Amino acid sequence: MDPSPRARAILDAISATGTGRIPDLSRRLGVTEETIRRNLRRMEEAGLVTRLRGGVRLRDRVGESAGEASFVHRFAENAAAKQRIAAHLAGMIADGATLFLDVGATTAHVAQALRVRRDLMVVTNSLPVAQALVSHNGNRVFMAGGELRAHDAGAFGDEALSFVRQFRVRHAVLSAAAVQADGGFALHDLREAEFSRAIIDCAEQAIIAADASKFTRSAPIRLTDPARIATLVTDAPPPSAIARMLAAAEVRVEIAPPLRPEGG
Predict the structure, then answer these.
(1) Is residue 261 part of a domain?
(2) What sections of the chain are H helices per DSSP?
(3) pLDDT tens-digit profile of 151-175?
(4) 137, part of any domain
(5) CB 146: neighbour CB atoms within 10 A?
(6) Of the four, 44, 113, 119, 137, which is 20 to 30 A from 184 by CA?
(7) Which molecular-function annotations from GO does this UniProt entry contain (predicted)?
């Protein structure tokens, strides 16, 4: 299928995160919600997107990586909790701040929430993060080089590591696949862990953004010594064993409050 101009506009609108809500697309494109739904039906038939209740996501072009779902699935999973975390974390970042954002799905939500800030200097290895913040409110975005991974559009490898080690930033905002009482913060991918450690070395403080589902999960690769993490931003209090681990490492836990309803 050669997408129509409106289909291309919809694809452009959801390209950064892989998902979109019908009311948001309607406002952005200046057409009715029924027009969006009609176009989405055709796009789904053409294999471009998958319709969801009240929204849409890009059709996966690759399967799941070992141990971890695709970026699109992870972005949509527990989206309300991730948005709460993102909004709270954005409130911790001042205009003009310098920060690193990694490839995590929660971090992509943080990038969206940070669009309210101005004059940020952002270093990232995530294409969705870069797309969310570049050319917006005077931000400067520096994207690590190297081959982009198919399943999450993240750049890794020696070139990306060398690039990011040139910077010194105020905040490193990182994701975790699991938060474990006996191992702290963990990931599924060795290259992600290596990259995150390099970023922690380049930042004044490291912040983990992780929703409460991570408290019940496990992952094989330790991200770093928990004592190197300043703050965990989450949406619910951690279980007692994890809370003790965090307290021993002097990690501050911030619970993101529920979002206000729009117009409220």
Answers:
(1) no
(2) 5-14, 22-29, 33-45, 71-76, 79-90, 105-113, 127-133, 158-164, 190-201, 240-248
(3) 788 898 899 999 999 999 999 999 9
(4) yes
(5) 17
(6) 113
(7) DNA-binding transcription factor activity
Measured torsion, CA atoms of residues 34, 36, 37, 43, in degrees rounded to the nearest 10: 150
3-class DSSP state for residue 32? coil
Residues 103 and 54 in one domain: no
Amino acid 64: pLDDT: 39
Asked whether residue 25 falls in the same domain as residue 140, the answer is no
Q: What's the CA gap between 132 and 174, in Å, rounded?
A: 17
Structural domain including 15 reads: 5-58
Q: 160 and 188 share a domain?
A: yes
The CA distance from 174 to 209, in Å, is 6
For 158-204, give the DSSP string: HHHHHHHTT--EEEEEEE-SEEETTTEEEES-HHHHHHHHHHHHTEE
In tens, the pLDDT along 79-134 reads 889 999 999 999 999 999 999 999 988 999 999 999 999 999 999 999 989 989 99
